User: What shape does this take?
Amino acid sequence: MPRILAIDYGQKRTGIAVTDELQIIASGLTTIPSETAFTFLKDYFQKEDVLKVLIGEPKQMNGEPSQSAPMIEVFVTKFKTAFPDMEVVRVDERFTSKMAFQTMIDSGLKKKQRQNKALIDEISATIMLRDYLSRKMF
Assistant: This one.
């Protein structure tokens, strides 16, 4: 079975997570500089069979788009142009960064390690993917 990939796109960094081939387990893959996202994804799609890509949709508490939404919309438009055959699913990414930070605390990472914003982005993508998989199962 093909994998599902999740992207937590940001202005500087992009966190990426992926499922196993059975689409059961979500794991952090990497965090990359955002300007290299398309090069990375093109290479990854050539090596791995990916069914669909989840892209975070930033929203405010009231459900309105957040300040970063226009930047992400530009990314989504470019993504769909670069990979027209890839299914794109937008997912609500509210609270994923806070949940990622809490996950780091719960796992016992030291304060210096918790300041690693790249790790937060990767964990955020993993949380988006895990939540998507749990909704898909039921």
